[in-house]
Design goal:
Number of domains: 1
Strand order of the largest sheet: 3-4-5
Helix content: 40-55%
Largest sheet: 3 strands, antiparallel
Structural class: alpha+beta
Order of helices and strands: HHEEHHHEEE
Number of strands: 5
Distance between the termini: 33 Å
């Protein structure tokens, strides 16, 4: 099922999977039969390719909640994930959407690249190429 083809059902199933608290990547069925990557658009111009794991489930759930106008609920989900660059980008977009910017931000332009340094609890920085 595509996440966008039946959003209420996808949201319900992802909520159930996320609520279990485990990592699907450790399940023997997933390890044996699901050798795939999920491609998630987590912010404009940013796509994450992730194995089927807790971060993928959480980011997919957060995107569905954001699309449904539930940004605070999406933030709650992403804040429970491992602090990765994908989670940082997702949180930056969500925090911006709700007007909550609890991080330091610096943007420097140099040779077609904008360096965005974000500190979410003092860990996460990334560079985003701008065409």
């Amino acid at each position: 099922m595509m996440l966008t083809s039946d959003q209420p059902t996808a949201t319900r199933l992802l909520e159930q999977a996320f609520a279990l608290g485990g990592d699907p990547a450790t399940d023997s069925f997933v390890r044996k039969y699901l050798h795939t990557q999920l491609e998630l658009s987590i912010a404009p111009g940013v796509t994450a390719e992730l194995p089927i794991n807790r971060d993928a489930v959480g980011l997919a759930l957060a995107e569905l909640k954001q699309d449904a106008g539930e940004a605070e609920e999406a933030i709650d989900v992403v804040e429970q994930l491992e602090p990765t660059s994908y989670a940082a980008v997702s949180l930056a977009e969500l925090y911006s959407q709700v007007g909550r910017l609890p991080f330091r931000r610096r943007a420097d332009r140099h040779d077609g690249t904008v360096l965005v340094a974000c500190a979410f609890e003092d860990h996460a920085s990334l560079a985003i190429p701008i065409p």
